[in-house]
């Protein structure tokens, strides 16, 4: 959501900067500078936190959810995430909740296609790797302030698979971009996945008609980035002989 849209919603709902700071965890001075125009290029994570707080305020105002227990806390934790209402899907990043939009049919078909190919490969080849499709929580940093929900993951360490979350970095992650998640997928989650030790991260972008693959498959600190069109075969780098044909998604 753009700053002007956030400002319009903020004014319509008469949300003060003090209240927005309390709800979002973003400092009062930072919020003031963003909405006054003093900060020309606000950080993506700050904007996401502000947007999430405004959405939460609107939901709370309408009686849809009672978020007061979370608003009083500077940071939310994995325990808070586990205790969210069943009808609310949200990711927890650095102690801040980010609501997740309902996926489109295209989104689900693409994630399902990739998951199907991954599970078929693993069943044929055997081994310990386990493909999983959303919703599945990933406690990425092994701390109590971050749980993300990728569209598809492959986890090759069985000890990381717990009852309700993957504890630690998966080996392979897929995110299918939606308009509301673009900044989060390309910037926030990219940094999170890289720092946590995810070996390979795919972003499928319908608008750009491309698959961006970030891989970190060796012991060096260098990350390799490759971009594929939907008509091109895309190799799964964590395996020697798995190549996905995604041309089918052009017909969805």
Automatic annotation (TrEMBL):
One of its GO terms (molecular function) is endonuclease activity. It holds the Pfam family Uma2. Keywords: Endonuclease, Hydrolase, Nuclease. Residues 6-53 form the HTH cro/C1-type domain. This is Endonuclease, Uma2 family (Restriction endonuclease fold). The lineage of its organism: Bacteria, Bacillati, Bacillota, Clostridia, Lachnospirales.
